[in-house]
């Protein structure tokens, strides 16, 4: 989907320098919005709450993977136990 969005941004007249996309004028951004809506119905997007929750879960999983790569933390919990504790946060 990201490639589709980048292609639509370019089609709408955005400037893409390889690192960021810029719309030099509001009309280009309006064109881009129209292309996105025409090609991806609004109900296919997640709400900001869903996006926030997905981000939190992804961050927890990334932290758990870092923990799994460690041997011990403070001599109390093993890395795997600590990773399991982080993952459990997603279930509460």
Could you provide a short overview of the structure?
The protein is mainly α and 92 residues long. The protein has 2 domains: 2-44, no CATH class; 48-89. The chain contains 4 helices and 4 strands.
Number of strands: 4
Tell me the helix content.
55-70%
Secondary-structure element order, N to C? HEEHHEEH
What are the low-pLDDT stretches, counting only 5+ consecutive residues below 50?
Answer: none
Question: What percentage of the residues does DSSP assign to strands (E)?
Answer: 5-15%
Outline = elongated
Given helix and strand content, the structural type is: mainly alpha
Structural description of this entry:
- With 92 residues, the protein is mainly alpha-helical.
- It has 2 domains: 2-44, no CATH class; 48-89.
- Helix content is 62%, strand content 9%.
- The chain contains 4 helices and 4 strands.
- Strands 1-2 form a two-stranded antiparallel ribbon.
- A hairpin with a 4-residue loop joins strand 1 (15-16) and strand 2.
- Helix 3 runs antiparallel to helix 4.
- The mean pLDDT is 80.
Give the SSE map:
Elements: H1 2-12, E1 15-16, E2 21-22, H2 26-39, H3 48-68, E3 72-73, E4 77-78, H4 79-89
Antiparallel strand pairs: 1-2, 3-4
């Amino acid at each position: 989907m990201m490639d589709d969005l980048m292609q639509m941004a370019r089609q709408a007249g955005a400037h893409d320098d390889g690192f960021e996309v810029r719309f030099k004028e509001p009309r280009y951004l309006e064109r881009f919005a129209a292309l996105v809506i025409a090609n991806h119905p609004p109900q296919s997007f997640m709400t900001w709450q869903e996006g926030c929750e997905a981000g939190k879960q992804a961050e927890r999983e990334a932290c758990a993977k870092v923990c799994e790569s460690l041997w011990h933390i403070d001599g109390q919990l093993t890395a795997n136990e600590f990773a399991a504790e982080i993952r459990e946060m997603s279930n509460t």
